[in-house]
Amino acid sequence: MTKLLESIGKFGLALALGGGVVNSALFNVDAGHRAVIFDRFRGVQDAVVGEGTHFLIPWVQKPIIFDCRSRPRNVPVITGSKDLQNVNITLRILFRPVTGQLPRIFTSIGEDYDERVLPSITTEVLKAVVARFDAGELITQRELVSRQVSEDLTERASTFGLILDDVSLTHLTFGKEFTEAVEMKQVAQQEAERARFVVEKAEQQKQAAIISAEGDSQAALLIANSLMEAGDGLVELRKLEAAEEIALQLSRSRNVTYLPSGQGTLLQLPQ
Known about the structure:
- This protein has 271 residues and is an alpha+beta fold.
- The chain folds into 3 domains: 20-66, no CATH class; 71-174, Band 7 domain (Tetrahydropterin Synthase, Chain A); 179-241.
- It is 54% helix and 24% strand.
- The chain contains 7 helices and 8 strands.
- Strands 3-2-5 form a 3-stranded antiparallel sheet, with helices on one face. A 3-stranded antiparallel sheet has the order 6-7-8.
- β6 and β7 form a beta hairpin.
- α3 crosses α5.
- The model has no long low-confidence stretch (mean pLDDT 80).
């Protein structure tokens, strides 16, 4: 019985050791990932291991797993425009490594290649592109600026074995001095527009006054000519028209009573 237990113990120990060896000789590569094998005797292998479960030599080989899916990264940069204005820009980048160049990336840059490469090349490209435009052009030609940055940055990143799926400007602001200058310019334009309106209004009032004066002068001239031609007859006509108008207005008032001439006795008034 004792020998049987010893045999079972040895078998279990051997099985455990064998399981440990087999387990250490296997590694998994998840979906969207790739692996590079580092051999202690031969260095980094040129072959790139794809998704799935794979074998390696325990304690001799080691897998380095890379995420090959597109990942976002925001890179803020402070630079200067062509007219020497400070510009704050944030660039959003979707990047991934070139699968076939993973051994070279791991050997020359390291696993944290995005930390080492993207901030430096983004700053370099943004400074070069933004320096070609004035501050106003950066606003009015933003699409052109974004496209130029994308083209230059994509070309620059390819030398490091990186693919940029998307590059976009998500934030673009200027320094305090430029913002204040823009606000002052807008205020000045509004004041100029208001002054122009006042001048136009005064000019219209002037023209109206001239036209009115010319009309009065023409009317006076016509009246003078009529008096010269008709004598006092025109004056008498105007008096009659005025008296007729006054009588019409008084006739509509309830507080006015008309008495015939010479009828003062009706009111017991002395003659």
